[in-house]
Design brief:
The complex is a heterodimer of chains A (about 550) and B (about 350). Chain A is an alpha+beta fold and about 550 residues long. Chain A is built from 18 helices and 23 strands. In chain A, strand 2 and strand 3 form a beta hairpin. In chain A, helix 12 packs antiparallel against helix 14. Chain B is built from 14 helices and two strands. Chain B has a two-stranded antiparallel ribbon with strand order 1-2. Classes of the chains: A alpha+beta (about 550), B mainly alpha (about 350).
C-alpha cells in the first residue's frame, strides 16, 4: 500500500514543481494542446523554426576538410557550389548562371549570376571560385577529395563573372565535381592555414542560411541569410541537435522536441502506423539514396575466380527475401550499380532470380560434384567454406544471416564475421586477405565508377579491392570519362552495367530506402519524393503560424 | 613525510612513461588508422591523398619513432592536436594569430562528465552508507534481504534499457523530465534559477543511471565492513559499558567500517574523468566517454593517448592520495608508513 501512495505523492510534487518552473519546457508543447489539426492545409508563410537531430557532430564546417556526412549536411545550407542537381537529378546552375563546354570538350566556362554576395555583404566573384580551386588542389590542404580538381591544368578568371577551367583530356565527371565543390570566401580565408583556421567554427557562406550559434556537443543553429544568393528560404531558423543514439532521437520525436529524423524500417512500418497519436502528427516519406548493399567476392582467391561459382551464389540468394526480411519491404532490387530509376540504370537488366536448382547445376559444372555426410558440396574432397566479412551494421549483419542460410541450402558452408570498421578495412580490405565481404557502396551522382571497377585500381587502399579485371569494362570506363554528351554516355554505362551483371563479381543485394519522418506542421514537402529526394526544395518548406511551437521569449 | 611524498612523486614519472609506452603499442595493435574511417571510404577520395594525410600525421613512420615524437611533445605538456576533428587541440584551448580561441576537446568534454560523476558518486555514498548499515544491523532479516535484492536488481538491470524506459516514462508519457541533452533550446534566455533548474532536470536521469550500478558494490562493501566490525571485541566492550545502540553503531562501528571506503574513493578518482559511453550516447551528453569511444573508432591517436595519459596520471595520484588519507585516518597505518 505504501509504495504506490508514495509514488503518487512524488509524481504530484513533480507535477507542481514542473508547472511552477514552466520555463523549462517552454518550447516543447503544442499550441492549443492536442486540438491542433496538423492535416489542415495553410497558405505558405515565412518564419518558424525547424528542429532536427543528427547522430554526429561536424568536426568543422569546411566540407572539403571535414569530410564527414554531418559536416556536409550543415554546410550544404551555408555554402553554394557552381552547379547543383535539380529534382530530377539534372545539373542546374547554382552560383553559375550558365556554363558552356568547348567543342574539343576540354574547357568549361562558367558565367556567374550577377550581384552575388557573401553573407557579410562583400561581393562574391570568380576570384573566390579560383581561390577555392587553388585551396582544394594545394598539397598542404588536408583533404581526401582533391583528385578530381587536380586534373585541371589551367584555371583562370577572364573577368569577375567568368571562371574557366581546362583539362588535358575531356573529363566527363568534371561537371559533377563542380557541383560538389562548395565555394569559400577569399577575403576571409586568404593567407590562413585552411586546416586550422577558426573559420571552420564560424563560417561565412552565401547560401540560404548562415550560422547563428554552435554549442559544441549540443546543437548548431542556422538562421536565414539576408544576402542569400538563391533568394530567401521560408523557414527562419534550422536547429540541428546532436543526439547519437537513434532510440533517444525517436523518443525526442515522440515527445515533439524535434521535427524530423530518419527512421529505421521497424519504426517506419510497425511502430508509427500502429499508433494513432503518431499518425496524427508525423508524415512519413521514403526516398532512394545513391547507395546499394552487395556481397563481393575476392576474385584473386579460388574458387571465386570461376564465374560459375559466382553465378551459382548469385542464383542461390533470394534478394526479395532480403528486402522483405531486413528492410521490411522498404527497398528495391538492384541490377546496375546506380540508383534505381535514374538514367544511368540500365532498364533492360533484372537481378538474378532465386533459383537453387540452377545454382546447384552451376556448382556441379564448376567441379563440385560430391556431397559429404552433412550435405555440403565437395570438389576434390574439399567443401567450399568461407567467411562472410561485414562491419557492425545491423542491416548488413541480418543480411549476412539470410545469405548464410540460403548458401547452406545448396551446400556451401559460409561463416559470418562481424568487425569494427577501421579493423575491417585495415586488416582485411587493404591486405586483400578476405574471401567474401558484405558491404555497401555510397556513390556520387556521376556515373563514373573508374575507381571501383577499373583493373588499374587494385593497389592496397584503392577501391577495386575485389580485383575485378575485364578489358572491355576497362575500355568502357575510360570512354565514359571522355564523353560529355549525356546520351552517348548513357549507352556506355548501360553496356558496362550489363557486362558487370553477367560477370557477377558482386551479388547486388538491395538498395534500401531512406525513411525520413517529418512533423506534419512542416508543409510544402513533395510526396512521393522526386528522384533527388524530398530535401531538394527544403527552402520552400514552411510552418504555418498556428502550428508553430511556442517560442516564448523571442 | 615530505621525503616520502617526493619519493612517491618521483617514481610516478618512470611509471607513467612505461604506461604510456604500453598504451601506445596496444593502441597501434588494432589494425587501421585515421585514413580508414568510414567517411574516407568514398570513391571520390583517392589513395594518394590518403597517403599524403598519413605522411602529414607521421603515420608512415615506425611505431617507435611515432612514440618518440609523441613523448617529445608530452615532455612539454603538449597533448597535440586531433586527427579526426582537424587540428582541434586535444587538451586545452589555443589562440590563433587573430586571437580566436579554439577550445580543447578534453577541456570541453571534462566538466560535464566530472559534474555527472561527482553527483552520482555523492548519490552513491549518500544512499549506500545508510543502506549498508541497515543491512548489517538487520543481517539476514527481511530489511537486509530486501535491500540486497534491490541493490542487486539495480546492479543487474541493463543500464541502457532502464535509461530508455525512464526516458520514455518521464519524458514522453509524462512531461516531467527532458529526454536528452544537457540544456533546453531556450536555456540562454532563462533566469539564473531557471537555468540551474533546467540543467538539474537534464542531469537527473543520467546521474541516477550512472549511480545505480555503483550502488550495489558500495552498499555491500559497507554492509560487510560493518558486520566485521560489529563482531569485534571493542564493540562488545562498548555495549558492555551500557552505551546506547545508536552510539555503538554510528560512533564506534561505522567510523571503523568506513576506513576501507577511503581506498575505494581514492581509486574512484580516475573514474571521475571517464564517462560511460552508453549513458552519454543515450542521453546525448558530450562527455569524456563518448569522446574516447569516438576517438577509438576513428583511430584518433592523439586524443586516445591524451585521455589515457591523464587517466593514468590520475590513477597514480589517486593511489597516493588514498594512501595518505588512510594514514591520516588510521594511526596504525601512519606509524607503519612514516
Amino acid at each position: 500500500m505504501e509504495r504506490p501512495l508514495l509514488l503518487k505523492y512524488l509524481s504530484l510534487r513533480m507535477g507542481t514543481l514542473l508547472s511552477l518552473g514552466l520555463l523549462l519546457t517552454a518550447c516543447s508543447k503544442e499550441p492549443g494542446g492536442n486540438a491542433a489539426d496538423f492535416d489542415q492545409s495553410y497558405p505558405p508563410s515565412s518564419g518558424g523554426t525547424l528542429i532536427d537531430a543528427t547522430a554526429g557532430e561536424p568536426s568543422g564546417l569546411i566540407p572539403m576538410i571535414a569530410g564527414e556526412a554531418a559536416a556536409s549536411a550543415v554546410a550544404s545550407n551555408i555554402f553554394n557550389s557552381l552547379l547543383k542537381y535539380d529534382k530530377n537529378l539534372e545539373l542546374q546552375g547554382e552560383l553559375a548562371q550558365s556554363w558552356s563546354v568547348s567543342p574539343d570538350q576540354k574547357t568549361i566556362t562558367f558565367k556567374l549570376k550577377p550581384g552575388l554576395k557573401w553573407a557579410d555583404g562583400k561581393p562574391l566573384t570568380s576570384a573566390d571560385v579560383l581561390f577555392t580551386w587553388k585551396l582544394v588542389t594545394d598539397d598542404n590542404t588536408r583533404t581526401p577529395y582533391g583528385s578530381d580538381y587536380k586534373l585541371v591544368i589551367r584555371a583562370e578568371t577572364p573577368d569577375v563573372a567568368t571562371f574557366r577551367v581546362s583539362y588535358a583530356n575531356p573529363y566527363a565527371p568534371a561537371l559533377d565535381s563542380w557541383a560538389g565543390l562548395q565555394i569559400l570566401p577569399e577575403h576571409l580565408l586568404k593567407g590562413q592555414d585552411i586546416n586550422t583556421t577558426s573559420f571552420r567554427f564560424k563560417p561565412v557562406g552565401s547560401h540560404y542560411y548562415k550560422l547563428e550559434e554552435w554549442k559544441p556537443g549540443e546543437r548548431i543553429s542556422l538562421v536565414r541569410n539576408p544576402n542569400s544568393t538563391q533568394g530567401p528560404p521560408r523557414i527562419d531558423r534550422l536547429v540541428s541537435r546532436f543526439i547519437p543514439d537513434p532510440a533517444a532521437q525517436f523518443l525526442e520525436l515522440l515527445a515533439d522536441n524535434i521535427d524530423s529524423m530518419t527512421l529505421n524500417p521497424i519504426q517506419y512500418s510497425r511502430i508509427v502506423p500502429s499508433r494513432e497519436d503518431l499518425q496524427k502528427k508525423l508524415a512519413l516519406y521514403k526516398e532512394l539514396g545513391n547507395n546499394y548493399t552487395y556481397l563481393g567476392f575476392n576474385l584473386k582467391h579460388k574458387p571465386f575466380d570461376d564465374i560459375r561459382v559466382r553465378q551459382a551464389i548469385n542464383y542461390a540468394i533470394d534478394k526479395q527475401e532480403l528486402i522483405d526480411g531486413v528492410l521490411l519491404g522498404l527497398g528495391e532490387p538492384v541490377s546496375s550499380p546506380y540508383k534505381p530509376g535514374t538514367r544511368w540504370t540500365n532498364p533492360d537488366l533484372s537481378p538474378y532470380p532465386y533459383d537453387p536448382n540452377k545454382a546447384i547445376a552451376l556448382m556441379k559444372e564448376a567441379g563440385y560434384t560430391g556431397r559429404d555426410k552433412e550435405g555440403y558440396l565437395l570438389r576434390n574432397g574439399k567443401r567450399l567454406s568461407f567467411d562472410i566479412l561485414t562491419n557492425q551494421n545491423k542491416q548488413r549483419e541480418m543480411s549476412a544471416v539470410l545469405v548464410q542460410r540460403r548458401l547452406k541450402e545448396i551446400g556451401i558452408d559460409a561463416n559470418i564475421r562481424v568487425m569494427e570498421w577501421a579493423s575491417f578495412i585495415g586488416r582485411f580490405i587493404k591486405t586483400g586477405d578476405f574471401d567474401v565481404v558484405l558491404l555497401g557502396w555510397g556513390l556520387s551522382l556521376d556515373p563514373d565508377q573508374y575507381s571501383i571497377w577499373h583493373s588499374s585500381q587494385q593497389a592496397p587502399g584503392q577501391f577495386n579491392f575485389i580485383g575485378y579485371n575485364n578489358p572491355r569494362v576497362d575500355k568502357l570506363l575510360e570512354q565514359g570519362r571522355l564523353e560529355l554528351n549525356p546520351d552517348k554516355r548513357m549507352k556506355i554505362y548501360h553496356e558496362f552495367a550489363s557486362i558487370l551483371l553477367a560477370d557477377s563479381p558482386i551479388v547486388y543485394l538491395y538498395a534500401g530506402y531512406g525513411l525520413p519522418a517529418i512533423h506534419k506542421r512542416v508543409k510544402g514537402i513533395d510526396n512521393p519524393a522526386p528522384p533527388a529526394g524530398i530535401g531538394y526544395n527544403s527552402y520552400d518548406w514552411y510552418i504555418p503560424p498556428p502550428l508553430r511551437r511556442n517560442e516564448i521569449s523571442q | 613525510m615530505i621525503r616520502y611524498l617526493l619519493k612517491r612523486l618521483f617514481w610516478m614519472v618512470p611509471l607513467l612513461v612505461g604506461i604510456s609506452l604500453i598504451s601506445f603499442l596496444i593502441m597501434h595493435l588494432a589494425p587501421g588508422d585515421i585514413t580508414n574511417s568510414e567517411a574516407s571510404f568514398n570513391p571520390k577520395a583517392s589513395e594518394e591523398s590518403r597517403q599524403k594525410l598519413r605522411e602529414l600525421y607521421n603515420l608512415d613512420k615506425p611505431i617507435i619513432v611515432q612514440y618518440g615524437l609523441w613523448l617529445k611533445r608530452m615532455v612539454k605538456l603538449d597533448f597535440g592536436t586531433s586527427f579526426a576533428s582537424h587540428q582541434k587541440p586535444v587538451f586545452w584551448q589555443t589562440k590563433d594569430a587573430e586571437g580566436n580561441v579554439i577550445k580543447g576537446m578534453i577541456q570541453e568534454a571534462l566538466p560535464i562528465t566530472l559534474l555527472i560523476n561527482v553527483l552520482s558518486l555523492g548519490l552513491i555514498i549518500f544512499a549506500a552508507v545508510p543502506l549498508g548499515v541497515v543491512s548489517a544491523i538487520t543481517q539476514n532479516r527481511p530489511p537486509d534481504r530486501a535491500i540486497t535484492l534491490f541493490v542487486f536488481i539495480g546492479f543487474a538491470i541493463p543500464g541502457f534499457w532502464l535509461a530508455l524506459m525512464l526516458m520514455y516514462w518521464t519524458g514522453v508519457v509524462h512531461d516531467w523530465l527532458p529526454i536528452s541533452g544537457i540544456h533546453s533550446l531556450n536555456h540562454d534566455k532563462m533566469s539564473a534559477w531557471g537555468q540551474l533548474w533546467d540543467t538539474l532536470t537534464h542531469l537527473a536521469l543520467p546521474v541516477f543511471i550512472s549511480g545505480l550500478s555503483g550502488l550495489a558494490g558500495i552498499s555491500l562493501f559497507i554492509r560487510n565492513g560493518m558486520l566485521d566490525v560489529l563482531h569485534q571485541d571493542y564493540i562488545t566492550t562498548a555495549r558492555a559499558k551500557g552505551l546506547s545502540e545508536n552510539t555503538v553503531v554510528y560512533r564506534h562501528a561505522l567510523r571503523n567500517a568506513m576506513l576501507p571506503l577511503i581506498t575505494i574513493l581514492g581509486l574512484a578518482i580516475p573514474g571521475l574523468i571517464g564517462g560511460s559511453v552508453i549513458a552519454e550516447s543515450i542521453f546525448a551528453i558530450p562527455g569524456m566517454g563518448k569522446l574516447f569511444y569516438d576517438a577509438v573508432l576513428m583511430r584518433d591517436f592523439p586524443v586516445i593517448m591524451g585521455i589515457l595519459t591523464i587517466g593514468s596520471a590520475l590513477t597514480l595520484l589517486g593511489n597516493l592520495i588514498a594512501d595518505i588519507a588512510y594514514a591520516w585516518a588510521d594511526p596504525r597505518v601512519r606509524r607503519g608508513v612514516m
